[in-house]
Amino acid sequence: MDNYREILEAQRSGKNIFSNIMNNSLDFSSRVQTHNHEFEGSVKLAEEGDDRHNHRFAGLTSQVIPLRNGNHIHRIRTTTDFFGHLHEIIVETEPAIRVSDDKHVHFVNGYTREADGHVHEFQFATLIEAPLLPLEEDDEDDNCCCNCHPCHRD
Question: What domain range is 15 assigned to?
Answer without folding.
Answer: 4-152
